Amino acid sequence: MIQRTLAQIAKMISVENDLTAFADTVINGVCIDTRKISRGNLFIPFKGEKVDGHVYVEEAINQGAAAAFWQKGVPNPPLHLPIIVVEDPLVALQELARSYRNELKLNVIGITGSNGKTTTKDMTANLLALKYKVQKTEGNYNNHIGLPLTVLNLDEDTDIAILEMGMSARGEIQFLTELARPNAVIITNIGESHLLDLGSREGIAEAKLEIISGLQENGLIVYHGDEPLLKNRLKSFSGNVKTFGRSNENDLYPVEIKQSETGNVFTINGYDEPFSLPVLGTHNVLNALAAMLVAHFFGVPFKEMNAGFSSLKLTNMRMELVEGGNGEKIINDAYNASPTSMNAAIELVSNLEGFAKKIVVLGDMLELGPQEEEFHFKIGQSIDPEKIDLVLTYGRLGEKIAAGAATVLTPERVLSFTDKHELIAELKNHTTNGTLVLVKASRGMKLEEIVTALR
To answer: For strand 67-71 and strand 357-363, is the pairing parallel, antiparallel, or unpaired?
Structure first.
C-alpha cells in the first residue's frame, strides 16, 4: 500500500494549506470508514447528503490515522492535527491514486464487460500468480471511488495489478482506464445490464470500449469475438488483439467441454491436454479463455495453467455450490443478474445430471430499461419443462418470469411470491436430498437470504 510522507503527498496532489509542521508524518494506506481504520492510514472524509465525514476526522486520528483530508470551505478545520486541506476529497483521492500509479513499476490489467468481470478477474489473478506477485480488485471496488482505493492499496513490489472496471453511464470507464493505464484489457461480453442508463446494447458496447482509451503502447486487447458489437468496432484496430469465444473463428475457443456439478473439463484449439476448471457453468469456460489469453501474453505457458485453476476460489455468490439442511444442493448465484447470465444459469441447471428434482428460484433483474417486462417474460418462456421441475419467482418483475413460465409449464409447477418468507416456507416443502436449487436475481433483491434459510 502507499507509504508516503505528507511532504511527498503535497507534491502528488494539490494541497491548500501549509504542511511544514507535519512534513515528516508518514501515511500507510488510505481509509474512508472510521470503523476500519488501521494505524497510519490517511482518512478520506466524504461529504454526503445525510452524513458528513468531516465530523469523524478527529475520531479517525484518535483511532490511529496518521492524517486526514479536509475539504476547503468546511468550517473549523482542526489545524493542530495533521490535516491536508484539499478542494475536494474525492478528486484528491483520485489524483493521489493517479500519481501513485504513475510511480509504480508494474503491469496493469483492466477488465470490463456486462457479465463475468469478477469471475474473469479471479481466474486471471490465479493464472498470473503462478509467475508473478499479483494484487486484484477486492469485492466490488470497481468504480470512481473503489478503483482509486484499490490502486492505493497496491504494494510497491507488486508485479501485476488486475483492476475491475464497472460503470453505469458513459465516460466512467474512460475515467478509470486513464487513471489505471492498463497494459492489457479484457472485455468479457456485451449484455443487457445498464440498458436503463445507456438505452441500447450498442450504447453499452461503446461504453465498454472506452477501456481502450487508457491502454498503454504495445498493450493487449482481449475480447469476446462472437459478439458483433465488439467485432465490428475492433476489426480495424491495428494494435495487439486476441479473441475468445465458442466459434472456431476466434484465436482461442473450446474444442470440447464436459460439465459436472464440480465444474468443467475442457480442451482448446492447438493444445491437446485438457484443463480442469472447478467452476460451474459452461459460460465460465469462456471467462477462463479470456484469462488464459492474458496470462499467456505475460509468459505463463498453457501447460502450467491447470495449477492456477486448481486453487481457484471465486468471489462469493457467483455460481457458488453449497448444501442445504435437507441435503439439497444449492447454486447460489445471487450477486447479480441480467438476461444473459440468467439464461446461462438456467442452462447450467437444465444440463446437470444426477438430480431427482430441479428447482429454479428467480427474482427481478434490475436496470433493464423500458423492455424489462419483456425480458423477464422471455426468461420464463425459455425454461425447458422437460428439464426443470419447479419455478419459484420473487418480486414484481419476477411475476413476469412466472407468467412466461406458465406458458410452458403446468400451473402447479409455477409459483410466484412477493413475500420472501412465504417463498422460503414453500420452497422448503419441495427440497430433499437429490434436489438441485438455483437461486438467482439482481443484487438488490437479496436472494442470498433464501440460501441462508435453506442452509
So the answer is: unpaired
Residue 199 and residue 292 share a domain: yes
Q: Nearest CA to 200 among 189, 212, 213, 191?
A: 191
Q: How many domains does the chain have?
A: 3
pLDDT, one tens digit per residue, over 172-203 is: 999 999 999 999 999 999 877 766 666 788 88
Angular region, 146: left φ>0, alpha ψ -120 to 50, beta rest: alpha
- Checking if the pLDDT of 356 tops 80, the result is yes
- Same domain? For 123 and 83 the reply is no
Domain membership of residue 95 (yes or no) is no
- Domain check: are 170 and 110 in the same one? yes
DSSP assignment of 210-276: GGGGGPPTT-EEEEETT-HHHHHHHTT--SEEEEESSSTTSSB-EEEEEEETTEEEEEETTEEEEEE
Which residues 6+ apart lie within 8 Å of 80 measured at CB? none
Whether residue 77 is predicted with pLDDT greater than 80 in this model: the reply is yes
Which residue range is the domain that position 340 belongs to? 320-454
Long-range CB contacts (within 8 A, 24+) of 412-419: 413/385, 413/389, 414/380, 414/390, 415/390, 415/391, 416/392, 417/392, 417/393, 418/394
Tell the residue number behind the cell numbers 445471487, with chain if given: 334
Can you tell me the mean pLDDT for 325-349?
90
Q: How many other CB atoms are found less than 10 A from the CB of residue 13?
A: 19
Residue 352 sits in a domain whose CATH number is 3.90.190.20
Strands 3-5 and 26-28: antiparallel
- Is pLDDT larger for residue 318 or for residue 146? 146
Residue 396 parent element (H or E): none
Q: What is the pLDDT of residues 100-132, one digit of tens each?
A: 999 999 999 999 998 889 999 999 999 999 999
**Beta carbons within 8 Å of 32's beta carbon, 6+ residues apart:** 43, 44, 45, 46, 53, 145, 149
